[in-house]
Amino acid sequence: MSDAPLAYYAPASRIRRRPVWVPTRQQVPFLATAVVCAVLYALAGYFYPVFFSPRVVVNLLNDNAHLGIVAVGLTFVMLSGGIDLSVGSVVGCTGIALGVLITRHDVHPLLAIAIVLAGGVLLGTAMGSLIHFFDLPAFLVTLAGLFFCRGLALVISRESIQISHPFYDTLAGLTIPLTGRVVLPFPAIVFLLVLVVGIYVALFTRFGRNTYAIGGSESSALLMGLPVGRTKIGMYALSGFCAALGGAVFTIYKGSGNALDGTGMELDAIAAVVVGGTLLVGGIGQIAGTLLGVLIFAIIGLGIMFDGRLTTWWTRIALGLLLLAFILLQKLLQFGKGAED
Amino acid sequence: MLHLLRPRRGRPAAGVRGCAPDDRAMGLTAPARGAAAPPNGAAPPFLAATSGNAGGAVTPHVAPPRWRTRALPLCFRPRSGTLAAVATMTDPNDPTPPLLSARGITKAFPGVRALDGVDFDLRAGEIHALMGENGAGKSTLIKVLTGVYRRDAGQVTLDGSNINPRSPQHAQQLGISTVYQEVNLVPALSVAENIYLGRQPSLLGKIRWRKMYALAEAALARLDQYIDVTRPLDSYSIAIQQMVSIARALDVQARVLILDEPTSSLDAHEVQQLFAVIRRLAGTGLGIVFVTHFMDQVYELSHQITVLRNGKLVGSYPTQKLPRLELIARMMGRDLAQVEAMQHEHAAPPQRLESRPLLEASGVGKRGSVKPFDLSVRKGEVVGLAGLLGSGRTEMLRLLFGIDRRDSGTISIDGQPAPLRKPRQAIDRGLGFCPEDRKVAGIVPDLSIRENIILVMQAKRGWLRKIPRRKQEQLADQYIRALNIATPDAEKSIRLLSGGNQQKAILARWLAARPGLLILDEPTRGIDVGAKFEIARLMDSLCKEGMAILFVSSELEEVVRSCHRVAVLRDRQKVGELSGGEISEHRIMDVIAAAPEATGAADGAPAGAATGAPAGAGRGDGGASAGGAA
Amino acid sequence: MSTTTPASPTEAVVTDAGGRATQPRRARFRLSGWTRLLWPAVALALILLFNFIRTPNFFQLDVVNGQLRGYVITILDLGTPVMLLALGMTLVIATGGIDLSVGAVMAITGAVASVLIVRPPDSALSAVNLGGSMTAIFAFSLGIALLCGLWNGVLVALVGIQPIIATLILMVSGRGVAQLITAGQIVNPRDPSFAFLAGGTLFMLPFTITLVAAMALIALVLTRGTALGLFLESVGNNPRASRYSGVNARLVKLLAYVFSGFCAGLAGLIATADIMAADANNTGLYLELDAILAVSIGGTALTGGRFSLAGSLIGALVIQSLTTTLLAQDVQREVDLMIKAGVVIVVCLLQSETFRARLVRAVRRTPA
Description:
The structure holds 3 protein chains of 3 kinds.
Chain A: H1 28-47, H2 54-63, H3 65-79, H4 87-104, H5 109-134, H6 138-156, E1 161-162, H7 166-173, E2 176-177, E3 183-184, H8 186-204, H9 206-216, H10 218-223, H11 228-254, E4 256-257, H12 265-275, H13 287-307, H14 313-332
Antiparallel strand pairs in A: 1-4, 2-3
Chain B: H1 2-13, H2 20-26, H3 30-36, H4 45-55, H5 65-68, H6 83-86, E1 100-109, E2 112-122, E3 127-131, H7 138-145, E4 153-158, E5 161-163, H8 168-174, E6 176-179, H9 191-196, E7 202-203, E8 206-207, H10 209-221, H11 238-251, E9 256-260, H12 268-283, E10 287-291, H13 295-301, E11 304-309, E12 312-318, H14 324-331, H15 336-341, E13 357-366, E14 370-378, E15 382-386, H16 393-401, E16 408-413, E17 416-417, H17 423-428, E18 431-434, H18 438-442, H19 449-461, H20 469-482, H21 499-512, E19 517-521, H22 529-544, E20 548-552, H23 556-562, E21 565-570, E22 573-579, H24 585-593, H25 596-599, H26 607-612, H27 617-629
Chain C: H1 7-17, H2 31-54, E1 62-64, E2 67-69, H3 71-78, H4 80-94, H5 102-118, H6 134-159, H7 163-182, H8 192-199, E3 201-202, E4 205-206, H9 207-225, H10 228-237, H11 239-244, H12 249-275, H13 287-297, H14 309-328, H15 333-351, H16 353-365
Antiparallel strand pairs in C: 1-2, 3-4
């Protein structure tokens, strides 16, 4: 045993872990989002003190619950480096399907919701399979999904359908009291629930970590022996599920279903995810960031609405500019993959 | 022997400082080994192998395990004259059964027989270098062993039982782990995750991060790395990332560890660290396959060398019985005696050689790519770059042509300083570059032959001044005829041509632009003999017309035949220059083989070489052979 | 002159090769270029044939008020916005990129032109006074479209952002910009020369068709009359080889996006003139997807490289005639969307190497 002793018993003191509060480079976009969100909220509150009331905070969550639910599912897809353009029309399609099922065919809402959720998962699985097994561009396959669902929704019914069912009203009335006068309405509850589950899945399950790995480097993930195909298909299924859930929640929020609901929502959702600090090429991002992204979207929208002089289209412009800023930030942090050869 | 090994195995099992569970994960402990043993309950074979070895320690062809508990002999002074005797497979009298054994491995791809009946044996505790030029079949062999490819024929046994790895994961489960040249991890995730992705410690499906961090720290500590495992992988150097790769590979019950060019982006100190780890791992009974292009490292580290060439086995030799020169000759498919006896056909001296260089580079280099070098090329001169693959030839050319940005040195063309920061500028200054990888960087596959030929000329003219169609056709036809490109029609897609004809079309592309200096990186690789000959003739006549040519080829014969001057490279630096009558295959090999001291470039060489090679070993060997040649 | 043959190597090689060197034969008729048009053309022909069977007077043309009328003309007329978009999109896709913003650019251009004509009080452009000159108004709005294209081009070619992301920014905010310009109103520009853009007649054909023909010609001259086409294809097909050959990829990409912006601008003007309303929310909605689909059907691979302008035009016609046919067969308009989805998948599958490989394997296995 003349060679150097094996270092089986390294003194633990030699290793100094990064303190939790020191961010890694990967966390910078997320922190930037948090700062932007806080600043926006403070500004909005400065001009319109009503922003600081709990009721408005709850409304910010509640009014955008459907968008948030959709965005959480989309975050998984985008973390893996994919994209899902179909989410908006899935929202419309599930809304109208629920309306028809419940109002015209007297299906119990619980069963109806189960049906549309299964439909969303089925669609996501189908799209994911096409993308994975035939190497098709995700962009185009989910585009086909967009067309398909919108068409299907319009075929089901062109008119808006009121949904009135005692159970639905019960659902809509389910709230959690926060303070004496403020309650957390059902859509917001579902949103927060989805968010928590999303964070758990992303952080504490192999499925979630595999998603990050695939987005970080799909070839590495393959060589590491991770179940790439299963995870990818699962991700699209998850996104389909979330989109359908978002659609269902939207009907509860509105009390009706419309085939044109969710038109253009895929863009809002993508923007919220990116502004939330998820890298468009995948691999880096947080589900919690998506909450911030949705909140930024909501604050801008509500602030502009309060203002009155500015009009709603400023929301889109501001969102576009934020999007640009975050993409440039990502570029600056050199997350771009593969330098030009 | 055995008792020397036992304590080491025993130590982790004894649970010193409570590390035992982690060691099981390392695959080093007795329980782990028992689990991998054949089901009949027989003693794990390579424990037997080790004791067998101890008995065989008196025989001359001792298998490596003998060394592993002693101070490692770092380099083996080569003895010439014993080559014929050792150019056989592993000694048949050696009683030690190999840990991993491949027999008659054959793998064909459309049009190529990448492996043709290759045999390969790896013993427990052995560090086995797999050598060969590009296309020799090294990576195919590794991919067959690790289940990336399915073999067409042959047999692989691990510990005496047949295995048939279906995928990298499957190979890993069987005990064969690989660390690839490019770090195949996920840069954005934490070090710990990179080690445990896919097998994170979890409880009821919930990943236990704390435990994972602790395990990762322990796993890395075993490799002498004490780093913060919670940080993302890309906040560490490539060397550490490499270590993380190894930690991941070892974390399953690895019996065989394959390292595919692990040192290509490490500096000398990092290489030494890595080697220390590799030696220690071999000491624990792991079989290690080591692929590298660095000669010095092979001699410093390995016990056994297997040489492949063109998909066939050249031979497997104990390292100390294979002098460097002989190794180089075998890799290049040459017989040393034949080389010594060869009458060299030399390039005729340049006719109108000007004294002023057309291109002069001084101190040009780039960190992590090539060490600073000087090079000049005169009009009408063919200058060759000779060196093994990975010696920095291509990197040098890339710096000269502005594909990579140099971070030191100056380049002047015709006496005028030239910035050459992108290929465009190099082209404007009259340079041309036929890249090594024809398919990836040369042809534009979907375009026609005509369009491929006129591309550079058109790029020089800009997009507004289109070369008239008739002129294009004329040019294309001219060059198709002049270079004898076999095609019925200039409008055919270039990807439909054979390799040789594609190469000629790319040459035509540059000739049409009339460069003053043409850089040819392996223009003859993968093309048939006729086309090779035509390209040689073409080079000859081009330089007679006054063109300067910078020529890279792995075929030394071609370099010797065509070049007026040859710059020799080893390990990412220029180590010598030969000119005129000095140029011979033997001399080039001598310069490549010489240990760094012999060429007086010790300062820049990997530190390993300095400690590894007893001073004068390379010199003595090289000198003796050179004397024989003269 | 730089184009002369190297004299001596020629001799050397030719003598050396002896009789082997043969005079290359030139095929005057370029088969490869036409075969790529075959499938989209067949698809179009099938749809037209179906129409002909169902509607015998499908190909009938009448002259009404000095203008040709008929189903075919209608399809051409209705297909013009997508055809225009497809022209620009073809060049962008040839470089290996994509332009998602064309729909938004259409909305912006339409809004600009309408606002300049109507001059509503609270528009963002109320400061711009072009004195009611229609030429100036067209020039100004198309200039804005060019700027939009330039913006995309700069982000992609100079800043180096992936095309799908770079153009997403304008896609998201472009409609906001359009609404900013119209101040959220639906502006109805009533101007005869503006109306002519969509409803006018020239050479007995709807003016739109003439316009598309003119733009197609311009695109053709721009790409094939100069070396731009060659550079587009080489950059898209093998960026590395192009860089080594000194092709200026940045310029080429920039030009492609600018051209795409311009085409989108024209399409936006037509679409706005067609309904005589600048609707920032709906003008050109989802048309970027139609354009991408048209290019894809036309045989230009989405990965870049060889492109075919004629193919993209045929692709656009395939989409339009499909829609028109379904409408004529009393199929619900909505089913059209679902069929389009099917077309996207089929086209994708046909272009997928993996799918073709699997198909070939499956076919081989069946007889054995």
